[in-house]
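Quick question, first post here. What does this chain look like in 3D?
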Amino acid sequence: MIPHRVARIVGIGAVAFFVITYIVSVNHDTVSLTEDIARRLQTLSASALRAPVNKVFKRGSAPTILFVVNTHEKNHETRVEDIRKTYLPRIHEKSSLDLIFVTSQMTDGNPDMFPSTCPMGYWEDSCKRADMMTIAGGYLRRPGMEVFDWIFFLDDDAFILPDNIQRVIMEGMKQEKNQTAVFGIDGCVHDACRGICGGGGYYMNRETLFHVLHSGDKKLYPSLRDETDFYDEQCGRCGDLTITRAMVDFHGVPLKRYPMNGIYVWDALGGKTDADYIRSLQMTDPLPWLYHYPARDRFVQFQSWVDEFGSNKKLED
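> Answer (accepted):
Ran it through. Tokens below.
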């Protein structure tokens, strides 16, 4: 028996609310989500997909990046709100940056949030990682979105310094821009399954994203979801590992390690003082660019330190 799941109401502003019904089978015999998301996005006007509404994106001297944040319905009023108060306004200021959220089933009603239709439960993390890439691909096919050359995937428990991430990508851009590769922290392992540590984020260029979405044996594995499902159990149902294996094994995408310098996981390790955080934010070599696992009440504090002490000087577009 195939259960029916109804995708929640999405979209405000220039378009009316709409509902799409998805049919998702427990054994994952799904139709390709890539085409489905593309069709759904075509029903939206460009203004309904962007915040602020009239923002115009363009290429300049700084890398153009779409940030895709993995979140969950239970975090809408906590982590998502903290992101909206802290580093998201800086992204909105820049014509070279944009951000969308991918959540579980029910959105918060904002036009920058899209629902995953993954079944809740054991398979959700692997399925959701696939949906993040598929939704990003559909989003980038909208008019005006062809300017984005890079896609950066991260979780809602990471605090980022957007200008410094642009600087990090810019440093290796001559070598990396035209490479089919995914860049991340290669080191997380479950049994024989090795891949990206998703908490530190991972990024790829536009060509790599669309290569993953449209290559492969679509008769055997119709969607990226089906490919991550193949590895789900052997990778311990860790979505960052299953998406790595799918990209590497099904699509021949090499995994390239980016430097750990500038990534901090101190709140997870403990023992750090406010002075330590401030000192790290003042570093110029390496530049700080991502803090993973900060307590949610730290986001606003971090942003105040960035504004007062940080090396995240504004990078002109």
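The radius of gyration is 19 Å.
The first strand starts at residue 4 and ends at 6.
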